[in-house]
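Assess this one:

_____
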Amino acid sequence: MLDRYRLQMPGFVLKHRAWFIASFQALLVLCSLVLAWLLRFDFSLPHRLLLFGTAPVLIVIRLVVLSQFGLMHGWWQYTDVSDAIDVLKAVLTGSAVFFFLMFAVLGVVSFPRSIYILEAVLSMVMLAGVRLFFRIVAESIRRGTTPEKRVLLVGAGFAGQMVIREIERPGSGYHVVGCVDDDGSKSGIRLRGVPVIGTINELPILAKTHKVDEILIAIPSATKAQMRKFVELCERTGVRFKTVPTRQDILSGQVRIDEFRDVQLEDLLGRDPVEINLESVKKKIHDRVILVTGAAGSIGSELCRQILEDSPQKLVSVDQSETGMFYLNLELSEHKNGSQLVCCVADVGDCERMRAIFAEHRPEVVFHAAAYKHVPVMEKNVQEAVKNNIFALSGLLAVAEEVSCSTFVLISSDKAVNPTSVMGVTKRVGELLVSSRPANSMTCVSVRFGNVLGSNGSVVAVLQKQLRNNEPLTITHPEIKRFFMTTREAVSLVLQAFSIGNHGDTLLLEMGSPVRILDLARTLMKLSGKSEKEVKIKFTGLREGEKLFEELSYLAEEVHPTIFPKINRIHGTPTHWLEVQRHLDQLRICASIDEVGRIRAKLKEMVPEYSYRAEGSTQESFTQTSLILRKAASVG
């Protein structure tokens, strides 16, 4: 638009731009002086010699001072309040210099003193007015040639003013038609010329009346409850909507207030995200050797990022995915923060390989995030689930203790509570391995949490992909619910567990009420600008091993608060280590037989709360397994 505007100017003006701007402003000063003279002498021009003799002096002073205040550039289509203030300063400064020169230096006492004031006022009005005129003309040309989105602003506070100022800049692509606010007393006032046209509750009606293309929510300090209300009202309009970043993001310098984003799923968790103070963690990570398994995954990679912020001596990242490790190393190398980075492509179930890694780097703290997590997949791959989630963990605990590791943190899942899936029951066995391990020199802690928003393969990611591909949204059951948490919450809980966890503890984050997946799907649909008429929702039925709802603790477990709000400590019925080891040895025998029914039966014996739909008779399978184990014991 700027280039188009410049092309419309005469070639002579473009070539001699500086001279033209100076001459034009000199003419304005001369006109102000002559008009002041006319006003002073009842529209006559007496003492013309004095008038036109002093005019060149005044013009030179005005131009020099205007130049000193940066007002000779001529880009008046970008004029704002700061330019008007500079004009005021320049005029007052020029008038002071002119008065001193005329009265004290040249001794011209016959010059009317009222002219000093009248000319200053008129010069200020003309110099500022012409800039405002060019701004209005440029804006009208731009709006007439460039299509702009008509937007309605939610929020008539400081953030709203900042947003309007940014939108007023050329090329923003927006035009604010009005503001709404939850404070009804603001109705009728104007923010930078934009009227407050009603309250937030009137949003659906106002959006339709003013033919709004988009709604911008400019309340960065809004709570989750307020945000849910805003979103519900925006959804009723059928118009796309966005929001400014949160106050925390703005204050931290991560984003600017004018950087709008789509309303994110985190805004609709049904609760405020838990902010965990990690100051106590920093001291325990600084200058130590930390090892993270499953480092290329969603939780593992975020763990690595946050750990690096606390400057460990060495961060050892372990994962089986070569490609994942390549990109993780590429990213972490830019934020080493003085730490040594080691990326190891390895299978945590390979005991000899892990023993070599531990012997070489001797980690002091281990965060174990490597596990199979997809319920339907593990139902078809029972042996692999047991091998990776149980046997690999058992071997890793032993290796960590061999090198005198001080802390071992296991990442578990809410699916470990009253499990109905192989994935869930293997996670529960993992918790038992950690909690029952003898209290030697290594502190072992488990962390239990729900679904992580944005993690690889999560239900939200699947639904988003289906929306992008214009496919039906597949949901297993209309009433299925899950606990959700953000990646930041999950990683903060893991790090805090390392800091405050006692040996054998299982720590749990308060995650509010579970969220219905159907509601999430509808929200994602609306945030994508689509209606339920455009997108079909298909119910496929619960998959094998899947529960209708998850739980956070067993009835027999005692939940106690910690010194940190929203973080609880779980105490269950203690299990003897020798008994766990006996069950583990028997499970190895079942796995070696490679018969799924017997593996499930043994898992059922280890975790009585485990329920599943077995092929054939569960009791028969259990009896056969017991006979085989007794024979093996007698041979031993």
Confidence is low (pLDDT under 50) at residues 1-15, 246-259, 615-636. Residues 149-263 form a domain with the Rossmann fold fold (CATH 3.40.50.720). The chain has four domains: 2-144, 149-263, 282-451+485-511+551-573, 578-635. The first helix runs from residue 2 to 7.
